[in-house]
TrEMBL record:
It holds the Pfam family Glyoxalase. Residues 12-132, 141-253 form the VOC domain. InterPro entries: Anthracycline_SecMetBiosynth, Glyas_Bleomycin-R_OHBP_Dase, Glyas_Fos-R_dOase_dom, VOC_core. Coiled coil: none annotated. PROSITE patterns: VOC. It comes from Ornithinimicrobium faecis. This is VOC family protein. PANTHER family: CONSERVED PROTEIN (PTHR33993:SF10), GLYOXALASE-RELATED (PTHR33993).
Length: 262
């Protein structure tokens, strides 16, 4: 298990959370499928539960905000920043929209919700006591986040302007895709792809020790398999749904770490 307790370079995906209609059912589902434990939830945080992997923060679950109970449920990816007001201005300057303006959460930090210029929803997180994921490269932790954009070129330009993303194009015939890095980052921080015929979105994939076993546990609890498992150089991956229909990926890393070119 790898531990990272310092702040991540700005623009890195640092947190994911999910609004759920039945917190008890969702906690039971993710405890079974991903092995999560949960912190107690206090009223001051609106029923928010932090998921733990070996005692370290990994993700969050919360009941829906008042009036949003029937909204589509999806995992939200938060990109880290030292200055959320500057990010908010950058989002609007680059053609995005502010869904929820910056809101301080006591000493933990500040959050905001945006859409990029192609319509994908994402969050911003200004570091406080909570610096984001403390655990990675471990079962139950976030393995990869990616933006599936409505306009591949325009979306890349948006994140380059707001967060300084640079890209390594991985596109092939019939597929547009690139990995992105952030200033000061030591390795690719995530990916961007192209989606057509549906709402653009950010997706999250979680590390699991056995993809097929995770799918078996999930489907026993009513999950649907949206993308059947397949193997590639970075592991064996599938896309499934949670209790509210939210989609997410699970990936079993390869037995030996993939070696990138260069």
């Amino acid at each position: 298990m790898a531990i990272h307790q310092e702040t991540w370079p700005a623009g890195t995906p640092v947190w994911v959370d999910l609004s759920v209609t039945d917190p008890d059912a969702s906690r039971a589902f993710y405890a079974d499928v991903l092995g999560w434990e949960f912190t107690p939830s206090g009223e001051q945080f609106g029923g928010y539960f932090m998921a733990l992997v070996d005692g370290e923060p990994a993700a969050g679950l919360a009941p829906p905000m008042e009036g949003m109970e029937e909204d589509t449920h999806a995992w939200t990816t938060y990109l880290g920043t030292e200055d959320i007001e500057a990010v908010t201005q950058g989002v609007t300057d680059a053609g995005g929209t502010v869904v929820m303006p910056p809101m301080p959460l006591e000493s933990l930090g500040s959050m905001a919700i945006y859409t990029d210029s192609t319509g994908a929803v994402f969050g911003g997180w200004q570091y406080g006591e909570h610096t984001g994921f403390n655990v990675y490269d471990s079962p139950g932790s976030v393995s990869w986040c990616e933006a599936m954009l409505g306009d591949f070129e325009a979306g890349q330009e948006f994140y380059a302007q707001v967060f300084g993303f640079t890209y390594e194009d991985m596109s092939s015939e019939g597929m547009k895709y690139a990995m992105f890095s952030v200033p000061g980052g030591e390795r690719p921080a995530g990916g961007v792809g192209m989606v057509e015929g549906e709402q653009p979105y950010w997706s999250v994939t979680f590390n699991v020790p056995d993809t097929d076993a995770a799918i078996e546990r999930a489907t026993a609890r009513g999950s649907q398999v949206l993308m059947e498992p397949y193997a590639f150089e970075f592991g064996r991956v599938a896309v499934i749904t949670g209790p509210d229909g939210e989609r997410f990926g699970v990936i079993e890393p390869p037995a030996e770490p993939a070696v990138s070119a260069g």
